[in-house]
């Protein structure tokens, strides 16, 4: 099933013509209505008429998250505030939040791309749709809510948290689809098991998961526990929110980007040069239809690649790989780049462990230290008569995990096994990196580390 078949299966030459026309309109809009962009363009000697189509995209300057903070709150809006019907933003945990705005048409377009995403993931009109994404300034909850309503679903706007209530509503309302962060929906499934319930016995058939990087191993875990198809969705507030791209039910291989709304590039994060299709680098997006808050070549910090080949589902829009991680979450361990998701893949391949882990960055003397903290399973703890770090089986498991991490990553990572139910559970985005170096006055503030 396709939500907008004439758009989703558009031939590539026609799509390029559409993108070029929309890019010209966007460039005109930001040049004449956003002083920040006008200054950047003038510094480069660029006029709107110099951008004839997508082939000229590389001439345009990048936008960074710091630009949003420096123009806080409304300095990057391209319309008067009276025309903005909604504002979203980041949590602002690292200073002032990043603020994005939407006109009435922006909200309609957002609902459209989210409805398209839900259909791509296997949803259909009439579904009961359990939305466990957080509502509020975070874009996840309301983005998926409006998309599901646009599709014609019955939406359960439960948001995150209160896991026992989530379980009751899933059992009583019998949703066909669920949306949320993968770590939190896994928490729901594990809580059901702890209550003596079978998560596979629910009415759920598909799950739309995003807002944090997650692995194929996490997908397998979610699908096995819940008896569903687990689909990855991608989006970020600065571009629009959820709905930028999503995997299809048929292939589950690469996320289809809504290219009639978003122009995508992959660049070398060090040089800023565009990379060929298939090469891994930093995702960059240019919005093509946003009125209130258009962005030009926005550097996402997310690491992925683009698929050059068509998908068997019949959609012609380009696909991006699943996000490997964020550049600012990357750890440099003795010269090797490591993402937490790579550790997750190893953890989930070990049956004696759970999917609950954290990567702790600390300092000993002048050296940074990286430790993977991960819980053992209830079954493993019961099988050895209760968890203690001194038990020979625990030491043996820790040694085996260190060896697997060494083989997978090419570097040695310390391992600290934890008793079941001792690491914090996510009710939103999982916090995977704990940087304790901030406790030391001389510690760097960035989460990158060289060991």
Q: How would you name the CATH homologous superfamily of the largest domain?
A: ANL, N-terminal domain
Helix/strand/pairing class, anyone? alpha/beta
Q: What is the residue-averaged pLDDT?
A: 93
CATH class division of the largest domain: Alpha Beta
Beta-strand share of residues: 15-25%
| Overall spatial form | globular
Largest sheet: 9 strands, mixed
CATH architecture tag of the largest domain? 3-Layer(aba) Sandwich
Read across the widest sheet, the strand sequence of neighbours is 4-3-5-6-7-8-9-14-13
> Span from first to last CA?
50 Å
Radius of gyration: 23 Å
Give the CATH topology of the largest domain: Rossmann fold
* Record field, number of beta strands: 21
Helix content: 25-40%
Query: How many domains in all?
Result: 2
Number of helices: 12
Stretches where pLDDT is under 50 for at least 5 consecutive residues are: 441-451
EC number: 6.2.1.30
Domain AMP-dependent synthetase/ligase: 79-286
Domain AMP-dependent ligase C-terminal: 335-437
InterPro entries: Adenylate-forming_Reductase (IPR051414), AMP-bd_C_sf (IPR045851), AMP-dep_Lig_C (IPR028154), AMP-dep_synth/lig_dom (IPR000873), ANL_N_sf (IPR042099), PA_CoA_ligase (IPR011880)
């Amino acid at each position: 099933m396709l939500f907008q078949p004439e758009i989703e299966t558009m031939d590539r030459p026609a799509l390029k013509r559409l993108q070029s026309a929309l890019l010209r309109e966007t460039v005109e809009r930001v040049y004449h209505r956003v002083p920040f962009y006008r200054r950047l363009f003038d510094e480069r000697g660029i006029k709107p008429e110099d951008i004839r189509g997508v082939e000229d995209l590389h001439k345009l300057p990048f936008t960074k998250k710091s630009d949003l903070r420096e123009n806080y709150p409304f300095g990057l809006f391209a319309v008067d505030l009276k025309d903005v019907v909604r504002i979203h933003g980041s949590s602002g945990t690292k200073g002032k939040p990043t603020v994005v705005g939407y006109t009435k048409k922006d909200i309609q377009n957002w609902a459209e791309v989210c409805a398209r995403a839900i259909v791509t993931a296997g949803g259909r009109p009439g579904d009961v749709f359990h939305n466990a994404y957080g509502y509020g300034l975070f874009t996840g909850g309301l983005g998926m809510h409006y998309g599901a309503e646009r599709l014609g679903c019955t939406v359960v706007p439960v948001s995150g948290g209160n896991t026992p209530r989530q379980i009751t509503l899933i059992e009583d309302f019998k949703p066909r689809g669920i949306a949320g962060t993968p770590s939190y929906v896994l928490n729901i499934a594990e809580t059901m098991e702890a209550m003596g319930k079978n998560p596979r016995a629910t009415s759920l058939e598909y799950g739309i998961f995003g807002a944090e990087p997650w692995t194929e191993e996490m997908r397998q875990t979610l699908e096995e526990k819940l008896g569903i198809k687990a689909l990855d969705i991608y989006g970020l507030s600065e571009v629009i929110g959820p709905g930028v791209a999503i995997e299809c039910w048929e292939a589950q291989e690469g996320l289809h980007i809504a290219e009639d709304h978003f122009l995508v590039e992959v660049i070398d994060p060090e040089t800023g040069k565009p990379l060929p299709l298939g090469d891994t680098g930093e995702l960059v997006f240019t919005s093509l239809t946003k009125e209130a808050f258009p962005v030009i070549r926005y550097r996402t910090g997310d690491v992925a690649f683009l698929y050059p080949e068509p998908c068997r589902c019949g959609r012609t829009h380009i696909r991006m790989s699943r996000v490997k991680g964020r550049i600012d979450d990357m750890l440099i361990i003795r010269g090797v780049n490591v993402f937490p998701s790579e550790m997750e893949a190893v953890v989930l391949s070990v049956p004696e462990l759970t999917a609950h882990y954290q990567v702790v960055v600390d300092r000993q003397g002048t050296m940074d230290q990286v430790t993977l903290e991960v819980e053992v399973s209830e079954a493993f703890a019961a099988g050895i008569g209760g968890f203690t770090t001194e038990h020979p089986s625990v030491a043996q498991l820790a040694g085996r995990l260190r060896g697997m991490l060494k083989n997978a990553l090419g570097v040695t990572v310390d391992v600290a096994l934890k008793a079941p139910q001792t690491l914090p559970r996510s009710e939103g985005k999982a916090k995977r990196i704990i940087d304790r170096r901030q406790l030391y006055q001389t510690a760097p503030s960035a989460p990158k580390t060289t060991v």
